């Protein structure tokens, strides 16, 4: 039923916007549907980053992605951070805002890492209430992303996918499903990544992340400094079959190549989606940039 749909129509295929590529984007206006920007990089009043953000935002739909919400911490929510985030959102008018289901700080000390949580009912209620507070403050639903992990808690009483579902339902938020993170955690914790995909509630998934990782044999690290490997592409195919056409983007945070290399990699995602879903599927027909100029993309 139409009234049951809580996610937005797909934007198509996007890339993470990185400073190395500002000029390439403005000078060549590549055939990219949308860009994801790291919120913390633009929480300043002006300067070059905000100039480029404004110029690129006039040409492409943008979404905002954060790494400092620390939604799972027992520290009070950082209201200075939230005020800056809201001001940035007012300026940028992103299609949506996302962060991670994790904790990053404790006692005011930032670990600068995305640390996993114990998967318990108590944690679900704690995280969900804080997400509700953030959503009320921002005046919109947000997306919460699954993180990769390298340890587990003895107190955990549910699987990670059950935890993600429970948080999203209790908070009435949406899900940013990171396909690479699922693969990394599956390898590190010895579970089947397809079990994860098949148990996530499709109703709440609004975006996919794709990325590369470092494989050390006995364990895998989510480094975002390699091309998307075949194992993650295979899992992406399965995710498309499970969830349908979801807005898809590629992250690259280190060892960043020329923009043309990322364009070529995004073409692989487009081809996989076309072959899996068919050319007529809305994801493959989506043109976020074109629709923005026609006034058809809404926040």
TrEMBL record:
It comes from the Bacteria. Pfam families: MbnB_TglH_ChrH. SUPFAM superfamilies: Xylose isomerase-like. NCBIfam families: PRK05409.1 (NF003818). Belongs to the UPF0276 family. HAMAP family: UPF0276. This is UPF0276 protein Q4Q50_16665.
